[in-house]
Amino acid sequence: KAAVEVVDLGKTYGSGPTAVRALKGISLGFAGGEFAAIMGPSGSGKSTLLHILGALEEPSSGRVVIGGTELSGLSDKKLTLLRRARMGFVFQAYNLIPTLTSEENVMLPVLISGEGTAKYEERLDELFSLVGLGKRRSHRPDELSGGEQQRVAIARALVRGPDLILADEPTGNLDSKTGAGVLDLLRESAARYGQTVVMVTHDARAAAVADRVVFLADGKVVDEAREPDADEIF
Ligand code: ADP
Ligand code: ADP
């Protein structure tokens, strides 16, 4: 059974003659532990799909079911709680707080949730070792490289053990070696914790690492592949 499922998803922005149909009936299921890439030309609906999966935007039609819970019935308050408890977001702009250390940034979702921080001591050790930043826990973002900042953002996305990790161009502004490290990390986390990772990417190397690649064009799924073909991507 899919951990994350979208059924006949439609999204229209605006109305009347200027309406834009960003998604035109998308149905997809993602298993726990699956690392999926979404690719497609600019304007094909990738970000819209990612935002709807993250309950950051509402679909115009169709259903989103996450861990057996259908999102459409939930209040905004419940959606916010669901995002905080079960989802992790890795966006291209790392959104780290400049005045906080790596460790404080990673702990932010825990602080926001109101959960006690005490039980996170071991988890932090584990996470910082997973992202290879054991010696950078007290550094602030401006003392870290881009790749290190992205890894802090990933540790933050993982800290509460989300079921679903949504990543928007996670390797977008990283050199290829650092990008490869970030991808390994996402794949390792999915495999180790059975998390579903859905990543939007233009990066053929990123897609090559994914278990599965879904191609969108004009708001529809046009192809799926296990191994992306460079001719299709560019
Ligand atoms: P992608 O991420 O593949 O580039 P998007 O999901 O951002 O595609 O956009 C899909 C389509 O929806 C595009 O035509 C885009 O212009 C349109 N769109 C996206 N967001 C909005 C919005 N907030 N208002 C109006 N149109 C939008
Ligand atoms: P709230 O309703 O509490 O203001 P938001 O809707 O802004 O929450 O976001 C809910 C959660 O989604 C936040 O905890 C945040 O971590 C995450 N989130 C939302 N947008 C982004 C983003 N652009 N980058 C990273 N995380 C995001």
Automatic annotation (TrEMBL):
PROSITE patterns: ABC_TRANSPORTER_1, ABC_TRANSPORTER_2
Keyword DNA damage attributed: no
UniProt keyword Transferase present: no
SUPFAM superfamilies in UniProt: P-loop containing nucleoside triphosphate hydrolases
GO MF, one annotated term: transmembrane transporter activity
Domain ABC transporter as annotated: residue spans: 4-234
Gene Ontology CC: membrane protein complex; plasma membrane
A Pfam family assignment: ABC_tran
Residues in coiled coil: none
Alphabetized UniProt keyword annotations: ATP-binding, Nucleotide-binding, Transport
Protein's UniProt name: ATP-binding cassette domain-containing protein
